[in-house]
Amino acid sequence: MTQALDDLTPGRRRPSAAELFRRTQFTGEKLRNFRHLDPERTLAGDTGAALLSRMVALAEAHQVRQRALQPDAVKSRVLTASTLLANLASLALNRVDDTRFLAVSFNRNAYANTPLSLSAMSLLRDAMLANGLIEGSAGGQRVRADDSYFGWLTRMRATPALRTIFADCGIGYASIRRTVGNVLILRDRKAGVSSEPPIDVEMTRQTLASMNKRIEAARIELPQDAWAGVTPGVIDAMHLDDEDRAPAGDLVGKSLVRLFKYDWRQGGRLYGGWWMSLPKRERKLLTIDGEAVAELDYGQLHPSILYARTHEELDGDAYTVGDWTSPAMRELGKTTFARMLNTTTSDGEPRAIQMAEGDADKLPPGVTWEDYLHAFQRKLAPISEWFWIGEGLRLQREDSDVAVSVLEAMNKHGIVTLPVHDSFIVQDNYRHLLRTAMIGAYREKFYYHPIIKEASLRVDNLLKMHREKGRGTRRGHN
């Protein structure tokens, strides 16, 4: 705080944001652990209002030139402050990893056609830096070896001083609101593709909006002991750098969006719910309004869909070959299938896949990678025409249509349903209704009977395991 008072001394040059950020040094590895600013998060309630008032006053006190703002500018400053603080508080409150940085752009183009203000964001950044409330790294540009430029965004996170202010104001998850303006999103739109969804996609908007209202009103919780099984390492292994999937522990993320890629025929899966980022084992410990849950999922969904296209029903396990049925070999089959499905070759013809790290350890003694790959591709010959052409995103469109149909059916019964791509979570006493809805949605689209699985792991045993783990690690937990 001494530095902040010195900075305000008349006649003294104020340090730049870059200079203030240099007070603390962070490695590139730490700075890569970040989330982008979510413009749909704002502060809410009396606690949010108290924090907002305090920080807007701090920013105004830091301002060098004091002049009256136009009403629209005042509104934009308040909204910008509310958005920035809500994002910083969300990261600080995260139940799994509260060390993430917030990535914020200070490029004017990023604020065009938005209600947020670059000048207000810059003022808030400088005021909080000067008062020791945020730490991180300034953004900028660097030059590659080929003389091209690349930029990186400013990274910031709450310091202990700002976290103390959060606590003083009573900031919790109820203090943060996330309002989804559009539940149908098209990323990386191709040239010539309309930004407006086709009628069949548009008709799913109401289903998502209705389910979002039910989810928002529900109390979705994970027992305290179960959080011991949700670690940053688990999250990293699940590749949760996807900005459209709320990370585990970010309990603000409850609203579903349907995300398409390139055009309206690709992608379309549901994202946004924090439960999606939980490991499957921990998801079984969720409660909805205090009630235990059941999770049912479509087994071998993409292989089943492809076989349905050939007017055949999948027989057996698509991910295993012959006697190679160990869990490790089945996992290898799943990852190999996904690579064949999502890789595009220039002529659409099969190619030899290079082993990924760890693949060799899964192979039985005496079996080479070439032997395995040849046998695996031979087994899946009936559906081979859809390999090597990037069919994965188009399959996601089909499985997402089924998922939305399941939500529509559950909406009619007024039942909160949490989707996780090809699986669904409901209160345990609604599992039979869910199974019926899943069978109906699949048969309506593909005509065959789906494979539906339900995990049999006992919840009481899992909780006991987490309690034992927690007793061993809680002493060192922050």
Task: Summarize this structure briefly.
By secondary structure, this protein is of the alpha+beta class.
What does this molecule look like?
The structure is a single chain. This protein has 478 residues and is of the alpha+beta class. The chain folds into 3 domains: 2-177, no CATH class; 182-304 and 392-476, no CATH class; 319-379, no CATH class. It has 18 helices and 17 strands. It has helices at residues 2-7, 17-21, 28-31, 45-62, 71-93, 118-130, 160-169, 199-202, 205-217, 232-237, 280-283, 301-309, 327-342, 359-362, 369-379, 392-412, 431-446, 459-473, and strands spanning 34-36, 41-43, 101-104, 134-137, 140-143, 149-152, 154-158, 176-178, 184-187, 220-221, 257-261, 263-271, 287-288, 291-298, 418-420, 423-427, 452-454. The strands form 5 sheets. Strands 10, 13, 14, 15, 16 and 17 form a 6-stranded antiparallel beta sheet that branches. Strands 1-3-7-4 form a 4-stranded mixed beta sheet. Helix 4 (45-62) crosses helix 6 (118-130) and helix 16 packs across helix 17 (431-446). The radius of gyration is 25 Å and the shape is globular. The two termini are 25 Å apart. Mean pLDDT is 87; it is low at 1-11, 234-241 and 471-478.
